[in-house]
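Sanity check

After download, print the first record. It should look like this:
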Amino acid sequence: MKKIGFLSFGHWSQSPGSHTRTAADTLLQSIDLAVAAEELGADGAYFRVHHFARQLGSPFPLLAAIGAKTSRIEIGTGVIDMRYENPLYMAEDAGATDLISGGRLQLGISRGSPEQVIEGYKYFGYVPGEGETDADLARQHTAVFLDVVSGRQFAQPNPRPMFPNPPGLLRVEPYSEGLRERIWWGSGSRATAVWTAEQGMNMMSSTLLTEDTGVPFHQLQAEQIQLFRDEWAKHDHGFEPRVSVSRSIFALVDDRDRAYFGGRGDDRDQVGRIEGDVARFGKSYAAEPDVLIEQLRADEAIAAADTLLLTVPNQLGVEYNAHVIESILTHVAPALGWR
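Expected structure tokens:
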């Protein structure tokens, strides 16, 4: 059995054929798609976060709205760039969202990816310290966030408060019990997979890795997952970890599917560069269901993960994206033992 959710990058544009022409279109359709996915039996609705872009950038209002309109589906991010975040304010937002959803928040965070502007986190008021990198900044924010979201009491109360305080030091409110165990780190390498396990976070492995050893992407990713699990076993974090992988997977079951994704030409790994470093990108899958089943059966990383996030072309609209999700759930997942 495997949890299957969708991952939306939340694009909007005025391009021909786009169903999301404004930010409002993307936000409202994201809610509708999450509701539809829950009705279809999917397990998760996840959203990428980008700043200074025509994409989703403020996840908590969206996730809270989805939490209020659904009852079962997990809601999450993949991922929030921690370089931009005030960790205490973020802990308040995350706690409130988790309570609204009844404990269904699965919060993916990370150092983030190349952004639309140069050092965009500086415009949000965050600058790495002397001799530090932006990756150091992200990890520092993460350490604070993990500390406060765990419910630690640390703030000295005012002796003459406006409202009565409980005894002792105070914590960030609202606090949602169990949320600390539902924080994920977006890991892009084998080394960060080990670090993620050391920190006691679940791991999200994306469609690219910032290293290349010459082996196929899915094998390198499977190695990354195994390193994460091996390191986790050395620690007593008090809960069993989860691992997700993201894939672009399209079952070609009608003429629309074949028109959009038949023969798209990205059915093999790609090697490129991200910020000057070598990166290996995973291939997309698009085929008739019987062919797709055999292709996916050979993907070692999908087999090793407990959660699969299907990247969806959100600009094609709610109805078509619900069809994409339903096609995987009905034509592919049962044959692979995922359902």
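If your output differs, re-run the checksum step. Summary of this record's structure: The longest strand covers residues 74-81.
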